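User: Write out your own:

AI:
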Amino acid sequence: MRTWLTILEQLYDGSWNEDLQRFRSPFAFRGMPCSTHALSSPLVRLARSRADVKRVESAMLRNFRKYARGEASHTDSVWDWLALGQHRGLPTRLLDWTYSPLVALHFATDNPADFGVDGVVWCVNFVEANKRLPTRLRRILEKEGSDTFTVEMLSEFETLREFDALSGDPFVIFLEPPAIDRRILNQLALFSVMSSPEAELGDWLRRHPDLTRRVEVPAALKWEIRDKLDQANINERVLFPGLDGLSRWLARYYTPAGQASSRLPMVRPRSRSRLPRRRKPNLPPK
């Protein structure tokens, strides 16, 4: 039977690093509210019906750089612009990930409207994925003693076309974005970057099933998981600092359980004694 504890065990499985004698997970995590959603980038979803996704990507990045210049004076490389665009909602080839399994679990349970369907947390071993990178990229990681890239480490590739030309076979890298704001820091953010704007990470992972696992988040457990994440201070107020995140947190926190989703009623935990019914939502702890 799937429980909160078994989900945690699955998420943290494989985190022991024998060389370091520490618990340092080699996995990147991505939480999704619906388990049937594909691992497609925003760019692919936007331009799926177009014949030339590369042209769409080039045009959007060109115009983003043109109009956002005044808001991003410290941005100078295509990788900076790509990370900034993804962070601000521009459809790019990037996908959002996190080093934190609990942050991923938040995004699988952050919308009460989706509490009637099963969610999922994807776990990808980026350390093993690096072994399938082109030699030039592996050497950059070895030189820096890192398992993930930064925009500075990719600066020798001045265009995405140069990056894509590194190999005829699709590959994926994991990129730590610049600390643009506190959201990036608080979410322990990470991006996956495919070697083609048309490539889908889900297709690549199906060809490399040894690198990934899916942790299912049953609909019947979402309320329990959500409440326990809130108690652990994993919520919108922390992950989206500012008044917008605060408002999102309070709106969700006070959503009545019976009104969250019409697709599946809330399943209460079993107990020998009857649990008291909460008539009014309590204020969140200070």
Notes: The longest strand covers residues 119-125.
